[in-house]
From TrEMBL:
It comes from Sesamum indicum (Oriental sesame). This is Nuclear pore complex protein NUP43. GO terms for cellular component: nuclear pore outer ring. It comes from the Eukaryota. Its main location: nucleus. The keyword Glycoprotein does not apply. It is found in: Nucleus. Keywords: Nucleus, Repeat, WD repeat. Transmembrane segments: none annotated. The lineage of its organism: Eukaryota, Viridiplantae, Streptophyta, Embryophyta, Tracheophyta.
Length: 358
């Protein structure tokens, strides 16, 4: 059951759009007053998927979004990631995976307002069916992809040629999400309550496995989203079905820490959501004295969004904070890395909500 909204004054503005929003991401700041957002949209009237950049003009009274650039995508977008270009900050790299099984890389020129396709990995031989998850490494040089077909692939962005297959389960495992942990390590989320930890220095498959039944067999379990904090790369945060949010410490692989969940044995009684968690990110905005004075074993605060319309913050051992409650699903959100007080999220009813925390 969702808790009552936080007593902290959060500024919330909802801006209607003209298409369904599959994903959205903050882009790097050019200056204090110039900010941009990248959208993956789908126009159901014309069956047209597209990528768009918007200029964000902040204002406590009435913030605004102005269209800047737009390109048509070959297929509906399943995952969207941004990485700053190390040589040209004003031209970040955007990676977008598609239902058709392709992976596309764009450069966004935020000064001149253009969005250009740099190269793409075609469907043939890459994934069988949709690409369910991707992630860019810290310097934007490599992208990892996973699919329901059980394939794990690596694409070198600098080479702009093909891909390297890391693993193929031949359908025995279906992957739903992925996240880099270090330049050579990443974690994949799977159907059936699973997490797999991979190390490119060790061939043959994952180096560590986690599998648990969150719901006691009452429902199927899928890990929809993963996050790993830059300063605590040994711990993976995972969100999935039945409102489950848990942390998996690679040093203690058999002892997950359950932070939220419905019908989960060790979950707190005041779980924030009851439905699928679509996205999870560590929330660097929250700085409690317990976190500052604690050891590295304490799980840092996390923000989640869910199918039952909740955007909130969950902190280990604390009451969860409900930032936004909607009568529709909240499909995606992003915390501004350079200004963590600002959060954007996409509502199923073709709107963007912009939240500013004090």
């Amino acid at each position: 059951m969702a808790l009552s909204p936080s007593t902290h004054p959060v500024q919330i503005h909802k801006l209607p759009q003209f298409a369904y929003i599959d994903a959205l991401r903050w882009m790097p700041h050019l200056s204090t007053f110039t900010r941009h957002i990248l959208l993956a949209t789908y126009d159901s009237d014309s069956s047209t998927p597209s990528l768009q950049t918007l200029t964000f003009c902040p204002s406590r009274a009435a913030p605004s979004l102005t269209p800047q650039a737009s390109v048509t995508a070959p297929s509906r977008i399943t995952s969207l990631k941004i990485s700053p270009s190390p040589l040209t900050p004003s031209k970040p790299i955007a990676a977008a995976s598609a239902f058709s099984g392709s992976l596309l890389f764009y450069s966004a020129d935020l000064v001149n307002g253009t969005l250009n396709l740099e190269f793409s990995v075609p469907e043939k031989g890459f994934h069988l069916g949709p690409v369910s998850g991707i992630d860019l490494n810290e310097n934007g040089s490599e992208c990892v992809s996973v699919g329901e077909d059980g394939r794990v692939n690596l694409v070198s962005i600098s080479a702009k040629t093909g891909f390297r297959r890391v693993f193929d389960s031949n359908g025995l495992v279906s992957y739903s999400s992925v996240r880099w942990a270090s330049p050579v390590e990443f974690v994949t989320g799977a159907f059936g309550f699973g997490l797999h930890w991979w190390d490119q220095r060790k061939a043959g498959g994952p180096v560590a496995l986690f599998k648990d039944n969150w719901t006691g067999g009452t429902a199927s379990g899928i890990v929809h989203a993963i996050d790993i904090h830059p300063s605590r790369k040994h711990t993976c945060l995972a969100g999935g079905s039945s409102g489950t949010l848990f942390a998996w410490d690679i040093r203690l692989p058999k002892q997950p820490i359950i932070l939220s969940g419905v019908g989960v044995g060790d979950a707190p009684a005041n779980s924030l959501v009851e439905s699928d968690i679509w996205e999870v990110q560590y929330d660097n905005y929250t700085h409690s004295s317990k976190i500052i004075n604690s050891s590295s074993s304490r799980i840092l605060p996390a923000m989640i969004c869910s199918e039952d319309g909740i955007l909130g913050v969950i902190e280990q051992g604390e009451e969860p904070i409900e930032l936004l409650a909607e009568p529709c699903a909240i499909n995606s959100f992003d915390i501004d890395r350079q200004n963590p007080s600002d959060v954007i999220c996409s509502l199923e009813w073709e709107s963007i909500a912009i939240l500013t925390r004090p």
